[in-house]
Amino acid sequence: MVPMDMAFAKFPFLSAILLSCVAGLLVILFIPEERKGLIKGISAIFSGIALVLSVIIFFAYDKSLGGLQFVEKLPWVASPCISYFNGAGGFNLPLILLTGIVHFTGVLTMWELETRVKEYFALYFLLVTGVFGFFMSLDLFFTFFWYDVSLLPMYPLIAIWGTTQKEYASMKLFLYLLAGSALVLPAIIYLFAKSGLNTFDLVALMEPGTFTPFQQKFAFIFLYLGFGILAGIWPFHTWSPTGHVAAPTSVSMLHAGVLMKLGAFGILRVAISLCPEGWQYWSGLMAVLATIGIVYGVLVGLTQKDLKYVIGYSSVSHMGIVGLGLSTVTAEGLNGAIFQMFAHGIMTALLFSSVGYIYERTHTKMIPELGGLSRVMPVASGYFILGALAGIGIPGFANFWAELAVFISAIEVYPIGGIFAICALVLSALFMLRVVQQTFYGPKNASIKHHLPDISFGQGLPRMMLAGVLLLFGFFPSLMFEVIQTFTIPFMEGLPR
Amino acid sequence: MVGPLIILSGMTLALGFFEAPLETFLIGNAGIGIQAEGAGLWLISVSMALVIFGGFLAWFEFGRKGSQQVGFVERIPALRALFSERWYLDHFFGWFVKNVVYRIFADLSAQNDRRVIDGCIDGFSRLVVRSGRALSTLQSGRVRYNLMVTFAVLAPVALYFLFA
Amino acid sequence: MKWVLFIPELWVLLMSAFFFGMSMAARPNPRRDYFIALFFAAAGVIVTLIAVRMEGTLFFDVYRVDLFSQVFKVMLAMGLFLIISLCSELNGIPDFRHHEFYLLLSICTFAMMVMVSSVELLTLYIALELSSYSLYILVALRKDHGTPMEAGIKYFLVGAVTSAVMLFGIASLYGAAHTTSLTDLVKVYPGVVDQPLAFIGLLFTLCGFFFKLALFPFHVWAPGVYQGAANQVTAYIATATKVAAVALLMRIVTLGQSSIPLVHILVVLSIASMTLGNLVAVMQRDMKRLLAYSAIAHAGYVLIGILSMSPEGYAGAIYYAVAYLIMNFTCFLVVIKVADDGRDLQIDQLAGLHRRSPLLAMALMLGVFSLGGIPPTIGFTGKFLVLVAAMQKGYFYLVFIAMINVVISLYYYALVVKAAYLLEPEKELPAIILSPAVRLLTVAMVILIVAGGLFPGPLYAIARAAARLLV
Predict the structure, then answer these.
(1) Please, which pLDDT band fits residue C471 given cuts at 50, 70 and 90?
(2) Which of A175, A246, B41, C231 is in Cβ range 3.0-4.6 Å of A169 for a Cys bridge?
C-alpha cells in the first residue's frame, strides 16, 4: 500500500464544511417555530455555504500531486490514540461534492414544508453533518462516530414527516441500519486491538503488514456485511425501498442519494483499504451478491405500482453496479464504482425531487392513478424523464461513463456476471421506459380532476441543478475520472498480490 | 422505369465478366488471386440454379399468359401471415416479456422480496418480542419464586467452578 | 487522626445529623427543607471536589483515601445534589416525612462514600448494609400512588437474602485467606485461588454488589422497586447506588485476576443480564419499569468492562459509570417533571411532549439515545471504551453479542422517542412550565451528554488515572 502523501490544509475547508452544518443546526435551534420563512432561509444559506466549499475543494484539488490534501489533524484523545483527522483525496472528493449538491437541492426541494419546520431542518442538518463527517474522516473512531450520527435523525425524520407506512418503515430502517453498525463496530475494534499500534488513525493502520491475512479476511466479511447493509447489498436491501417510499422527499433524496453511498464508501475506506487480502479473498462473493442485486432490483422494480418503489428498486440495482465495480479488484472497477456512487446519487436525487413535486400536486404516487402528465406539466415531467434516461445509462449523462467503466472491468474479471449485468441494463430500460410511458405519456388519467400547475422556475431550480450536474459530468467525465484516478491507480499498484 | 433497370443490369453483367481488370484497378496487384479454395463448382451451380428458379417463379406467377398475377406468398395463407406479421418476432418479444420476464422472474422476485426476505426480518422481530414476553413471565410477583430463580442460577455457577 | 481526609463523609454526616434533628423538632415546610437540603448537597459537591487529590489511610488502614475512591465520592456527591435538585415539588412523599427523606438520602450517601473507601471486608459489609437499609425505608416512603409497601418489602427480603449470601462469602474468604483486609487479600488471594472455599467466597461476596447493580440473577427486585418507589427515590437508586456498586465490583474483582473460571462466569452473567434486560424491556408500558429493565441490561454492559480486568477495562467502567449517572438522571428528570404529581408515568403519557416542552423532549431523546449508545452521546463513548477494553483481551464474540443487544435495546428506546415526538394525546395537555433553575439543569445535562460524547479525553484521562490505582 502506498503511504499517502499528506498535504496539510492552509485553510481548513473540510472543517469549515462541517462547521457550516453544525452552525446551521445551532442557529435553527434558536429560531422560534413560527418564523418558518426565516428557518428555511437560514437553511438555504448554510447549505449553500457547504455547497460552495465542496465545489471549491473539488476543483482546487491538485491532481498532479495526488494523495491526501486539505488534511487536518488534531489529537483528540491520548490513549487510545484518537485524532480528529480529515483529509480529501480521489476517493472522497466526488462524494463530498455529491453531498454538498444533494444537501443544497434537498433544502430547496422542501421549501413548501409547513408542519414542524424547525425540527425538520434541525434534524436534517444533523443528518448532513454526520454524512459529511463520515466522508471526510480518516480516523476509525470518528468514522464510526459520524456513521451513527447520520443514523440517529433518520428515525424521527421518517416517522414524523413520512408517508406510506411511516412507522413500520422508520423503525425497520433504523433498527436494520443499526444492525449494520453492530456488525461494523466489533470489526473496527477488532482491527484496532489486533494492530497493536493503539491508534485509530486510518493512515497508520493502512501500512502493509499490520494485519495477518486471517485477521484481514475475518474482519473484512464483518465490515462488508455491516456496511453492505447500508449499501443495499442483496439480500440485505429490503429496508431501502420501504424506507424510500415512506420518507419525505428531501430525506429520500439524501437517503438514496447519499446514505446508501455511506455504506459503499465504508466498504471502500475501511474494509478495502485496511484488509486488502480479505478483499481479494471475498471478492468472488461480493461479485455474486452484486450481480444478483443488479438483476434482482430491476426484476422486482418491474412489478411495482408506486413511483417511489420503482425508484427505490432501481437504486438497489444501481448500488449493485457499485458493488460489482468494487468486487473486480481492479483500478477501472474502482473508478467506475466511485463514479457510479456520484452519478447515481445525483440521478436518484433528481428522480425523487421530481416525484416529490408530482406527489404534491397530484397527491398520489401510484402509477395506475397517473397518466399523461407530460401534457399538463411538461417541465416537471421533463425532469423525471431526464433522470430516468440517465438511469438507463444513456450517453450524455454521467451514469453512462460510470456503468461503462464498471462493465468493462466486470467483463474482464467476471465474464458471466458482467453479461448478466448488461442484460439487466436492457431490462432496466424496459421498466424505466414503461414507467415513463404510463405516467407521463398516454391519455391523461381521468381521476385527476383538479388543475395541475407546472413547476415554476424557483421550484425547478434544485432539479435544474441536479440535471445540470448530470449533463456536465456526462459530457466532461474526465473532470471526475482524473480526480478519482489519483487515488485508485496508486492504491491498486501498492496492493500486495 | 425500365431504362435505369436495363442500364444497371447491363453494368452488373459487364462488371461480372470484367472482374479481373476492375480488381487490378481497385486493389492493385496484391488482390488478385483471392478466391475461395474448394468452393468451386457446386457453389456456382447452386447459386445459378437459385437465380434461374427465381426467374422461373416470377415468370410463372406474373409473366405467363393466363397467370393470376398473384404471388406464391399470397397463395399460401401461412406464408402470407408469416410475412405480414413480420416473422412473428413482435409476438415473440411480447410473449417473452410478459410470460418469461414478468411472470417468472419479476413476480417471483417480488414474491421473494416480500415473503422470504422481509418475512425473515419480520419473523425475527416477532421472535424478539415473543421471547421478551416469555422472559417477562420469569418476573412473577412472588418473592419466593424470584429467589428461587436466583438460586437456580447461582448453584450451577458455583458447581461449574467446583468441577471445572 | 488525619480527619481532613474524612471531610466529605463528615459533611454528609453533618447533613444527616441536621435533618435528624429537624425530623424530631421542626414542623414540615417543604420549600424550606428543599433549600436547606440543596445547600447541603451543593456544598457537599464542593467539599468532595476539594478533597479529590487527597491520599492516605484512616482507621487502622481499614479506610483508604486515594484518587479512585475520591473520584467516586465526587460522583456520589454529584448524584445526591442532582437528585435533591429535583425535589422542589416532592409530591411523592408525604409532607411530614420530608425530613426523614432527606435524612435517609444523606445517610445512604454517607454509607456509600464509606463503602467506596473501605479496604476491609467487614467495614465494607457494614457500609453496604447501612446504605441498603436506608434504601429499604426510602422505597416504602411513598404516598398515594404505586405499591410502595410491596416494593419496600420485596426489596428488603431480596436484599436480606443477598446480604446473607454475601456474609457467607466473606466468611469463606476469611477462612481461605485468613485476612479480611483487601490490601492483604490482593497479595494472598492468587495463592489460594484454586481452593473451592476461596472461589466460592469471592463469588458470593460479589453477589452483594451484583444485587446493588441489578445484575442477573440478582435483578428480580429492580422492576418492582423502580415502579413502586417515589420518582425521586427511584432516580436516586438508579443513579447513585449503581455508581457505588460499580466501584466496589472493580475493587473486589481485581482479587480474582488470575482466575479464568471467574471470567467465564462473569461473561455468562453479563450476556444473560444484557439479553434478559433488553428482551423484557421491549414489552414494557411503564416508563420506570422500562428504565429498570434497561438498568439490568446496562449492568451487563458495565460488567464487560469490569471483567476485562485491565486498566483500560476499569477506566472504561468508570467512564461508563459517570455516563450512566448523567444519562439516567436526564431520563428521570423528564419523568419527574412530566409526572409532577408523583404518579407512575406510562409511556403513552409522554405523548405530545415535543409541544408541551421542546426542551424536555430533546433532553429525553438525547438521554434515551445515550442509553442506547448512539453517538454523539456520552453513552456511546462509554460503551465504545468498554468494548475496546474487552476486545483487547480477545473477547470478540462478547463484543458482538453486546452490539446485537444494543440494536434490540434501541427498539424500545426508539418507542419512547416516538411517544414523545410522534404520538398525540387524546385531549390537549397543558404546556409544562419549567423553573429557570430546572431549565438550566436540563440544558447542562444536554450539554454534558453531547460534550462527553464529543470530547471524551479529559474524563477518560481521569478514569485511567483512577483505574491505575486498582491494578
Answers:
(1) low
(2) A246
Q: Are B61 and B111 found together in one domain?
A: no
Give the mean model confidence (pLDDT) for residues C369-389: 91
Q: What is the pLDDT of residue A2?
A: 43
Of A77, A174, A183, the CB nearest to C460: A77
Q: Give dist(CA C65, CA A405) in Å, integer.
A: 68
Mean pLDDT of C228-256: 90
Pairwise CA distance, residues B57 & B80, whole Å: 17
CA-CA distance, B85 to A42, in Å (whole number)? 63
CA distance to A209, A377, C117, C204, C282, per residue, from C240 (Å): 47, 64, 15, 23, 25
One domain, residues B99 and B64: no
- Using a CB–CB cutoff of 8 Å, tell me whether B106 touches chain A: yes
pTM above 0.90, yes or no: no
Which residue of chain B has the CA closest to C279?
B132
List all residues of chain C from 143 to 182 with a beta carbon under 8 Å from chain B.
Answer: 153-154, 157-158, 161, 165
> What range does the domain containing C434 cover?
3-468
Whether B122 is covered by a domain: the verdict is yes
One domain, residues B78 and B99:
no
Coil/strand/helix, residue A268: helix
Phi, psi at A67, each rounded to 5°: 65, -160
Q: In the 3-class helix/strand/coil scheme, how is C304-326 assigned residue by residue?
A: HHHHCCCHHHHHHHHHHHHHHHH
pLDDT value of position C42: 92
Task: For residue B107, give the nearest of A238, A303, A427 by CB distance.
Answer: A303
The residue ranges of chain A whose pLDDT is under 50 are 1-3
Residues B94 and B159 grouped into a single domain: yes
DSSP annotation of B60 reads I
Which range marks the domain in which residue B53 is found?
A: 42-84
Same domain, B98 and B78: no
| Interface check C319 vs A, CB under 8 A | no
**What does the alpha-carbon distance between residue A282 and residue A332 come to, in Å, rounded to a whole number?**
19
Whether B125 is covered by a domain: the verdict is yes
Q: Which chain C residues have a beta carbon less than 8 Å from that of A155? A: 414, 417-418
Domain end call among B33, B52, B84: B84
Residues of chain C with pLDDT > 90, as a percent, come to 44
The total domain count for chain C is 1
Inform me whether the C-beta atom of residue B144 falls under 8 Å from chain C C-beta atoms. no
| Calpha distance A148→C450 (Å, rounded) | 14
Contact C355, C431 (CB under 8 A): yes
From B84, B118, B140, give the residue that closes a domain. Answer: B84
C467 touches chain A (CB under 8 A): no
The answer to whether C404 faces chain B, any CB pair under 8 Å, is: no
CA A480 distance to own-chain centroid: 16
> DSSP string spanning A357-416?
HHHHHHS--BGGG---HHHH-HHHHHHHHHHHHHHHT-TTSHHHHHHHHHHHHHHHH-HH
- The pLDDT value recorded for residue C133 is 93
Distance from CA of C272 to the nearest CA of A (A): 18
Whether residue B16 lies inside any domain: the answer is: no
Let me know if residue B153 belongs to a domain: yes
Spell out the domain ranges in chain A.
6-493
Regarding an ipTM greater than 0.85, the answer is yes
C417 chain-A contacts, CB cut-off 8 A: 155-156
Strand order of the sheet with strand A68-77? A6-8, A68-77, A82-88
Q: What is the C-alpha to C-alpha distance for residues C257 and C312, in angstroms, rounded to an integer? A: 14
DSSP helix/strand/coil, C259? coil
Among the partner-chain residues C218, C269, C280, the one whose CB lies closest to the CB of B139 is C280
* Å between A173 CA and nearest CA of chain B: 11
Q: How far apart are CA C141 and CA C152, in angstroms?
A: 9
Chain B contact for C471, CB < 8 A? Answer: no
Residue B157 forms contact with C (CB below 8 Å): yes
Which residues in A lie closer than 8 A to residue B104 (C-beta atoms)?
Answer: none
